[in-house]
Design goal:
Length: 1148
């Protein structure tokens, strides 16, 4: 999935503005190059900046939708007995041309453009619509008097009338820097500006597109720009905000956080910022973290504050949030910076004090706001981009091998170079041959004390051994060594930089990249020794020297790698010129020779150590990440945890894995762990709208309390699901497609699972508990799945289409090695999303959308607890897309009237499709179809049968249920004639509508819409339709009968340790040829299951373990004996209705 692009803004020391895309690798110069800027502050839709003339400019991005503003004024007239309606009004009336209230005089010619950056789209015209309905020609609306309620119809008592005139203006200065002009009183014009910051777009209930723009003048005064929003990107006026002292710099976060620095070194914090008062109420003072050095720069995010003191030290503020914007204490961070900037998601950028390089703070997460380390951005400029052949890497790699390659390199370079470059090229092989290998460089650095050659460019911090507060201290020494190494690699400048009007303490020229950067990216430490040329202010291979950076509009995806830290192609102009003279034949020869020498070296080194015993018995592979965990103590809520998956590979090649979950409990670090060979299922679940999944073990299945984890994005959740599923399969030695005897199941989300049964599952008298079965997910999305014991698997989608399993495996989010290469097809499914429109009866207006304060939302889900409007209701997940508009659903259970309404006495109640005298509320259901398309191992099969359920027995008996709840039997089905010849209608149980059928070897079970399970009696080879229905149990959601007449169901209201669980997989025990309905239920995995099938499980128990059966009781045709037998086999799953359903179980 491609990551959406956003921009990082920066200003170099010459005042030029550059942008760097999150998916790019080069700095691009801003289009408008005529201006020189001091500082910029950016958000997603625009950027504000202060030029070197101390004036404010704004840069608004272009888009598909123009920025338009509607100007309007009203023309008013009064009726005169002589001339009718005329422009002469009474002295007490409103103006002839006014605003909608009539209090402001607004003539057509009084409207002017607010600035030169606007233009009129058209001339004035009359709006001939009122409330969306057309009026008579002329657009007049009539009323008795001013002001009153206006109507489009003229009546006998209509004494006044008015009409609205409209004119649109459009903002035209997009993708250019537009100067902010001021129309304020000349005596109150703001001073020349020195700093600017924008934010506030995430303030609670803030209108869409509204921004808070704050600026600081050279006199130390703070100004606020009024009315900056989407349709007015320039704002209107500047308002002066009083401060306790002279302000030097200011920073505004995306929410309600605003900090500023005073010239004396303290920081001030604005309090009381909200939607109704975006300017805030008062200031609070925060002292500097150092008594000797005051604060010179500050930057804020959503709930973080970073600052720079006058000694260039970096500090992080603890405990900052909306309730305590001042925070609690300061933490010193590693490094020395000129400035820092906090962007979206609290990501941090900084500019180095000595090298003027932009650094990115890695490891910033919601649970570790301070991050882990600084990493330099080494991107070049767009003007420096060039293409380099593969021979450049071969030339550089030659220095790590034998003298033969180096001599060959020397010959090639001198032979192919022209005469004018002989002097330059003759020194290159010397540099290459004198450069030690990376290992030698590292050892030399450690012996001499120099950190320039061997220092790594990044420091790996173990996420399991650091928390939010201790992370900076844990990596302090390594980070400091990294920053020092970058400083030491910058050579002394040979020439001074050109003069600039930006005040700088010192400006040096540096080499293109430090050696430490090369050691991390490509290990080509010799490339920094090539000569460089000069180009304008910078050399062709120099990185720009930066003065300011702004990440307010830069959205960094933590799960998508950035290209900012890799060396761009084209390291230096001299290397690129060399690569142009190398022929493809020489390149191929080098590749072959290098490969041969590496192979010989590998054999030689392994041969010397063959007689040694293996020192390490197993290898360990670890994956870590940040997730949320639904904790198992009260109050139950989501908490941030650190997750680590450790996978062990033994000497025999077998793999096993452990999942660790680290959390904080009363300021103490604790953890829980799960052996993946004990995990029975990993499934995606629905829990509070999060991207969550659950891990079940046999013990947690009995408790009805799985381990629930949630990721920040759906892609991250799918990555963890795929990895954990593959690790579980490796631990249990399961691979490839499902077997012919597999048990299939579908969750309430449409995910498909499969379990490989063992003979002990049906063994008597002690069968294996079904909570120990392992279920793995296969790709696809279906409503139900059916199969037989010959490996034929069919499914029905939510759109009633039929699909057949092709024998492949994987697909969906399970990709790579865990998915088969063939038998993967594109599967689509259509699913309806439902919302409800609710209304209450009012004695004055009738049914209306204004309910009582205690009523449910007027647009809600089926329960009424969650607000669901047409605008905010989304598809089930980002993988789904809408394929229809909202429409009224007339097929709601209970019936509807002609407009789709259902009526009831109150919310919630039993709804019916006709209105009565006692019905005070009504609702109707709206539906919208969504589509999913993904690669799976399912192939579509066309059918025109309107069935909702179908089943094939062991002897090819086919039963089906139609949409109207009727049962059908297909006659004359055989292997030679699988389609049969005709359908036989089977009467349903009295007053019941069927919804599912399942056929075993000799048994036929059906399920009605009220949750009752029925058994078909009297089925014989000569009369396969049977004779009557017999009730078995209630509270059943779905059921399945196996080829040996085994019965499995999805049941509701099953007793657990925390209450009642919905969607529990249960097994019918005691099924025998003389007792085909069984005797009792065995409760298995529970919480959130929608469908199960055991159509492929033909595993029989060993004969020796089957005890001798007691003689069956004599069958009685009539009387109490038959009645007692029926009562004994009818074992419902109903429990006490008064017991509360467990709210913490993973429900559907």
């Amino acid at each position: 999935m491609a990551m959406s692009s956003s921009l990082l803004w920066a200003v170099d020391i010459f005042g030029r503005v550059y942008t760097l895309s999150t998916v790019g690798q080069y700095w691009e110069l801003c289009k408008d190059t005529q201006l020189e800027f001091k500082r910029v502050s950016a958000v997603k839709q625009c950027c504000w900046g202060i030029a070197c003339d101390h004036q404010v400019y704004t840069y608004v991005f272009s888009g598909d939708v123009p920025i338009r503003y509607q100007e309007e004024t009203y023309e008013n007239q009064r009726w005169n007995p002589v001339g009718g309606f005329c422009e002469k009004l009474m002295p007490s009336d409103r103006w002839q041309w006014s605003d909608v209230s009539g209090l402001k005089h607004q003539q057509l010619d009084s409207f002017t453009l607010p600035s030169p950056h606007w233009e009129w789209e058209s001339d004035w015209y009359v709006d001939e619509n009122i409330g969306g309905e057309p009026t008579e020609k002329g657009g007049w609306t009539y009323a008795i008097d001013f002001p009153s309620t206006y109507t489009k119809d003229k009546k006998w008592n209509s004494c006044v009338r008015r009409r609205r005139w409209i004119r649109y203006r459009r903002y035209k200065s997009r993708d250019v820097w537009a100067k902010i002009t001021s129309h304020d009183d000349p005596e109150r014009l703001p001073d020349p500006f020195n700093d600017i910051s924008i934010g506030g777009w995430e303030i609670t209930d803030e209108p869409l597109g509204r921004l808070s723009v704050w600026a600081v003048s050279l006199q130390g005064r703070v100004w606020y720009r009024e009315n900056v929003c989407h349709h007015n990107p320039e704002g209107s006026t500047w308002s002066l905000i009083s401060t306790p002292g002279e302000v030097a710099q200011i920073s505004c976060g995306s929410y309600d956080l605003l900090w500023a620095t005073l010239w004396e070194g303290q920081a001030i914090v604005r309090e009381g910022i909200d939607r109704n008062n975006p300017q805030g109420i008062s200031w609070s003072t925060v002292e500097s973290p150092s008594s000797d050095n005051g604060i010179m720069h500050v930057s804020v995010g959503v709930d973080v504050v970073w600052c720079i003191t006058k000694d260039r030290k970096v500090w992080f503020r603890r405990g900052v949030n909306s309730h305590n914007p001042c925070g609690t204490s300061w933490i010193e961070m590693v490094g020395e910076m000129m400035m820092v900037n906090v962007g979206l998601n609290n990501q941090v950028w900084g500019i180095g004090c000595d090298d003027r390089t932009i650094y990115f703070r890695q490891g910033v997460t919601p649970s570790e706001l301070s991050g882990k380390m600084w990493k330099a951005i080494v991107c070049g400029r767009e003007s420096d981009r060039s293409q380099t052949g593969s021979s450049t890497s071969l030339l550089s790699a030659g220095c790590f091998f034998t003298d033969d390659i180096q001599n060959q390199t020397n010959t090639v370079i001198q032979g192919d170079a022209d005469t004018s470059s002989d002097t330059e090229l003759s020194s290159i092989p010397t540099n290459l041959s004198s450069t030690p290998p990376m290992g030698a460089a590292a050892s030399s650095a450690s012996s001499t004390g120099s950190q320039a050659a061997g220092a790594p460019a990044s420091v790996t911090v173990d996420p399991l051994d650091s928390d939010q507060g201790e992370a900076p201290a844990a990596s302090a020494s390594d980070e400091k060594a990294h920053l020092e190494s970058r400083k030491s690699t910058n050579p002394t400048p040979s020439t001074e930089l050109q003069w600039t009007n930006i005040d700088l303490k010192e400006a040096h020229r540096h080499a293109v990249l430090s050696v430490s950067t090369f050691t991390e990216t490509s290990s080509l430490s010799s490339l920094g020794m090539f000569s460089v040329g000069a180009e304008e202010q910078y050399g062709a291979d120099e990185h720009p020297l930066w003065a300011w950076v702004s990440g307010g509009g830069c959205l960094v995806d933590l799960h998508s790698p950035l290209k900012w830290f890799a060396v761009p192609s084209g390291l230096s102009s001299s290397v690129q010129s060399l690569s142009l003279s190398i022929t493809p034949a020489q390149t191929a020869a080098w590749r072959k020779q290098i490969f041969q020498q590496l192979s010989e070296r590998t054999k030689r080194e392994l041969e010397n150590f063959r007689h040694y015993e293996q020192a390490v018995e197993q290898s360990v592979w670890v994956k870590t990440g940040m997730l949320q965990w639904w904790r198992n103590w009260k109050p139950h809520k989501w908490m941030d945890v650190r997750v680590a998956l450790e996978q062990f590979t033994g000497s025999d090649g077998m793999r096993d894995s452990i999942l660790f979950i680290y959390y904080m409990y009363h300021e103490e670090k604790k953890y829980i762990h799960v052996f993946l060979n004990e995990v029975t299922i990993i499934a995606e679940v629905l829990k509070e709208g999060k991207h969550s999944f659950a891990l079940y073990t046999p013990e947690r299945t009995k408790q009805r309390w799985p381990i629930c984890l949630a990721a920040t994005t759906e892609q991250e959740m799918h990555d963890w699901l795929s990895l954990l599923t593959m690790s579980c399969c490796e631990s249990r030695r399961i691979q490839g497609p499902p077997s012919h005897h597999a048990i299939w199941s579908v969750s309430c989300k449409g995910d498909i699972f499969v379990s490989e049964p063992s003979p002990e599952l049906e063994a008597e008298p002690h069968p294996m508990p079904c909570d120990q079965m392992f279920w793995r997910q296969v790709g696809g999305h279906l409503r139900l799945v059916e199969c037989n014991n010959r490996g034929i698997v069919w499914g029905i989608g939510y759109d009633h289409t039929v699909w057949v399993h092709t024998g492949g495996y994987g697909g969906g989010f399970i990709q790579g090695l865990a998915s088969s290469a063939d038998n993967i097809y594109t599967q689509s499914d259509v699913k309806c999303v439902y919302i409800y429109e609710n209304q209450r009866w009012n004695p004055v207006t009738g049914y209306s959308s204004r309910g009582l304060p205690t009523d449910r939302y007027m647009w809600s889900d089926a329960s009424g607890l969650q607000e669901c409007t047409k605008a905010n209701t989304k598809p089930p997940s980002p993988q789904w897309s809408w394929v229809s508009d909202w429409y009224i659903d007339f097929s709601t259970s209970g019936g509807t009237d002609r407009e789709g309404w259902q009526y009831a006495a109150d919310f919630p109640a039993s709804y019916h499709g006709h209105k009565t005298m006692k019905d005070f509320v009504r609702r109707r259901r709206w539906a919208r179809s969504s589509l999913i398309c993904q690669g799976t191992s399912w192939l579509h099969v066309g059918t025109d049968q309107p069935f909702v359920s179908i089943s094939v027995g062991a002897f090819f008996q086919v039963w089906a249920v139609a949409r109207d709840g009727s049962a059908f039997y297909r006659g004359s089905v055989s292997p030679k004639k699988p389609a049969g010849d005709c359908w036989y209608h089977i009467p349903s149980p009295q007053k019941q509508k069927l919804k599912q059928v399942s056929v075993g070897r000799t048994s036929v079970f059906v399920l009605d819409k009220n949750g009752n399970l029925w058994y078909r009696q009297g089925i014989t080879p000569s009369y396969p339709q049977g004779s009557a229905w017999d009730h078995v149990s209630n509270n059943i959601r779905k059921m399945s009968v196996g080829p040996l007449d085994q019965v499995w169901v999805i049941a509701d209201k099953v007793q657990g340790s925390h209450g009642l669980s919905c969607g529990t997989v249960c097994h019918r025990t005691g099924v025998q040829p003389m007792e085909p309905k069984g005797l009792a239920w065995d409760y298995g995995i529970g919480g959130g299951w929608e469908h199960v099938t055991v159509r492929g499980n033909a595993s029989q128990a060993p004969r020796g373990t089957v005890p001798s059966e007691s003689p069956p009781e004599p069958m009685e045709s009539e009387g109490s004996g038959r009645k007692g037998q029926a009562e004994r086999s009818r074992t419902p799953l109903m429990v006490s209705e008064r017991q509360e359903v467990d709210s913490n179980a993973v429900n559907c």
